[in-house]
Design a protein that fits this description.
Layout (H helix, E strand, L loop, with lengths): L5 E4 L1 H4 L11 E3 L2 H13 L3 H14 L9 H16 L8 H13 L2 E4 L14 E3 L1
Parallel strand pairs: 1-2, 1-3, 3-4
Helix pairs in contact: 2-3, 4-5
């Protein structure tokens, strides 16, 4: 069993209430999570949400992103195939699958508030719903 020093924090986790993880891990983000977060303030429907999203960007800017590299690209292909076998449509899950692929390639666990988005990837990526 893996004991990561880092754990990927999905976008939906980052935008919720403060992260409370009971294991001894440090949060990490992928370049693709940072891209999703960058859109947040621009897509917010009200000023309070826009301010919260902007604050979130300030916090995540302190984290060096894990790149989407060649290993993550290869993992992406594997995860797309797993999603298709489960009857899922990978086209609508591009961002989630890219995040999961980076976790897979980096041998990191993935913490999210939307674990259902990663259904079908069991055995490939450890996903924790928080």
């Amino acid at each position: 069993m893996r004991t990561p020093r880092l754990a990927l924090i999905g976008r939906s986790s980052a935008t919720g209430s403060p992260l409370r993880v009971t294991t001894n891990v440090s949060p990490a983000v992928t370049a693709s999570i940072k891209a999703e977060l960058a859109a947040g303030p621009h897509l917010a429907l009200d000023p309070v949400e826009a301010k919260r999203q902007a604050r979130l960007q300030e916090v995540e800017s302190a984290l060096e992103p894990i790149p989407v590299d060649a290993a993550a690209a290869r993992s992406y292909g594997l995860l797309v195939a797993a999603a298709v076998r489960e009857g899922r449509k990978p086209e609508s899950r591009f961002a989630d699958l890219l995040i999961a692929a980076t976790a897979h390639a980096s041998r990191l666990d993935l913490y999210t508030r939307n674990a259902e988005a990663f259904t079908g990837l069991e055995g490939l990526v450890r996903v924790f719903n928080i």
